[in-house]
Amino acid sequence: LRPATDHLRTEARIRGSDGTSLLTGPPQCEQHSAFTRDPRLSRCLTFSRDGTLFGWCNGHSVSVVKSSDSSIVSTFDLPKTALLEFSPLNGVLVTWQPYTKAQDSPQGEANLQLWDLHSGQLIKALYQKKVDSWCPSWSDDEKISVRSVNNELHFYENNDFNSIANKLHMQKVSDFVLSPGGQPSKVAVYVPGSKGAPSFVRLYQYPVLGGPTAALANKSFFKADRVAMQWNKKASAVLVTASTEVDKTGASYYGEQTLHYLAVNGETALVQLPKNGPIYDVAWSPNSAEFCVVYGFMPAKATIFNLKCDPVFDFGTGPRNAAYYSPQGHILVLAGFGNLRGQMEVWDMKKYKQVSKPQAPDATHFSWCPDGEHVVTATCSPRLRVSNGYKIWHYTGSVLHKWDVAAGSELWEVRWQPFPEGSFPERPVKYQAAPSELGTTQAPPTQAYRPPALRHLPATPSAKLHEEEPPQNMRPGVSGEKSLSKSALKNQRKREAKKAAKQVNSPSEPEPQSDSVPITNSQSEPSSGDPEMDKKIKNIKKKLKAIEELKEQQVSGKVLQKNQLEKIQKEEQLLKELEELQI
């Protein structure tokens, strides 16, 4: 929430068993003077995208009010409404209620309804049985909207839902994501694999949806029961997290995940993650030029990648499973919620320097305030039915406001009021804790457990269960050399050792032009004088070249056959044989 000295003050909506209320602040958080708390149980609530409107359903009706003065905009007699959403320009209100059938109507009632907010009239009633992808997706200018109907995408133009302007029909479209921003609109679609065929994600630019060359980019992959697709803010690239329900190797309880990159210019890549294990979270930076991935068996790693999918900065290992960029992108919070202790690491993304390390135990919700200065953490039901409440923090670790629900009550949802982009400019990052009466909750240093009988004795160093990896800048030139994979680094060291050995044994010989093992045609190389040996060397180099090509295919995301993988495993042996023959 915004400090009182600024011209803008943000708001937060609180929904729980005691009703719905509105707060303004901080540093002093107080009830909104114009909004009267609704004591009835609220089924759902939402803000419009620009934050000027607020809507909620209390089990009797759906109400829409202005956020500034709580004056009524519209009221709808829809007591069963379970979900609400505003269109980007606040022209349409979408309501959804669970689909039911009646005896007099075997088809059931149209449970997805679109309302004109200005007139209060019904625009269109549609059938939407599943709650997944229940709401139509709009472009920011509302010129295009799209919804999934029976494994195909229906496109509408200018909020005319009585006529379908265009369709995208493929084998079985399972999921889609419309790009942010205005025109030209793009859409990412996912089709699951079947009968041995791979799954794939394709990018299209509206209205070019048909024909073999219509797709801007295409990425196919196996091992995908479901995917999560994320556009960056500039709509130039998509990250696809592909997941399987079961890891057949038995290495992970969470199944198996892979991360793929697709750009609208046609580039695709498999993001190489150096540590095995689940992918917990993927987050785009608001600058659209980099993204953060939290991955690997605990303690998890977190790494920043650029648009070439090269690592830029590694945060090392730690107890974390989520990443949250500030709206301005200048601060990143790495957090460990759920089955972890709630530790939050706050990082300055320009200096790659840690700002604070507060702790929010039992938190089930985290979100940034639009000002980029404050965050809220909350413990909500039904995830946890005890110790419900919320805290508002400054990113330096200070708790500015705290509220716990009364005994017997529950907190269901906490939501910040959005603001138009550019309302809150980026501020310099501070490292000194903001003043607060509630203080900070920096995580205390952990120590190994010692039995009472040994506590009077001097402490002795104990072996750690996991080796902790420190943060590391991965940019080429910063650490002195470009980051390489483990196998490439191992081969590089072998070549350097071989070169050093040759210089020691024959100091008078001129230094070779390249220290790498050439994997090319050896016609121009001097002969050893033994035709049989020359033939063997030539064959080995031919095999090594084929292995290099297979490794390049593997990096690009192609799934290799078993015999091809076996070839790659023989690289070490072939290099050793080549070295012996050349000596």
From TrEMBL:
<feature type="region of interest" description="Disordered">
    <location>
        <begin position="461"/>
        <end position="540"/>
    </location>
</feature>
<feature type="region of interest" description="Disordered">
    <location>
        <begin position="1"/>
        <end position="28"/>
    </location>
</feature>
<dbReference type="InterPro" id="IPR013979">
    <property type="entry name" value="TIF_beta_prop-like"/>
</dbReference>
<dbReference type="GO" id="GO:0000049">
    <property type="term" value="F:tRNA binding"/>
</dbReference>
<keyword id="KW-0677">Repeat</keyword>
<dbReference type="GO" id="GO:0043022">
    <property type="term" value="F:ribosome binding"/>
</dbReference>
<dbReference type="GO" id="GO:0006417">
    <property type="term" value="P:regulation of translation"/>
</dbReference>
<dbReference type="GO" id="GO:0003743">
    <property type="term" value="F:translation initiation factor activity"/>
</dbReference>
<feature type="compositionally biased region" description="Basic residues">
    <location>
        <begin position="491"/>
        <end position="501"/>
    </location>
</feature>
<keyword id="KW-0648">Protein biosynthesis</keyword>
<dbReference type="GO" id="GO:0003729">
    <property type="term" value="F:mRNA binding"/>
</dbReference>
<keyword id="KW-0810">Translation regulation</keyword>
<dbReference type="Pfam" id="PF08662">
    <property type="entry name" value="eIF2A"/>
</dbReference>
<dbReference type="GO" id="GO:0022627">
    <property type="term" value="C:cytosolic small ribosomal subunit"/>
</dbReference>
<dbReference type="InterPro" id="IPR015943">
    <property type="entry name" value="WD40/YVTN_repeat-like_dom_sf"/>
</dbReference>
<comment type="similarity">
    <text>Belongs to the WD repeat EIF2A family.</text>
</comment>
<keyword id="KW-0396">Initiation factor</keyword>
<feature type="compositionally biased region" description="Polar residues">
    <location>
        <begin position="503"/>
        <end position="527"/>
    </location>
</feature>
<protein>
    <recommendedName>
        <fullName>Eukaryotic translation initiation factor 2A</fullName>
    </recommendedName>
</protein>
<keyword id="KW-0853">WD repeat</keyword>
<dbReference type="InterPro" id="IPR011387">
    <property type="entry name" value="TIF2A"/>
</dbReference>
<feature type="domain" description="Translation initiation factor beta propellor-like">
    <location>
        <begin position="219"/>
        <end position="414"/>
    </location>
</feature>
<keyword id="KW-0175">Coiled coil</keyword>
<comment type="function">
    <text>Functions in the early steps of protein synthesis of a small number of specific mRNAs. Acts by directing the binding of methionyl-tRNAi to 40S ribosomal subunits. In contrast to the eIF-2 complex, it binds methionyl-tRNAi to 40S subunits in a codon-dependent manner, whereas the eIF-2 complex binds methionyl-tRNAi to 40S subunits in a GTP-dependent manner.</text>
</comment>
<feature type="compositionally biased region" description="Basic and acidic residues">
    <location>
        <begin position="1"/>
        <end position="16"/>
    </location>
</feature>
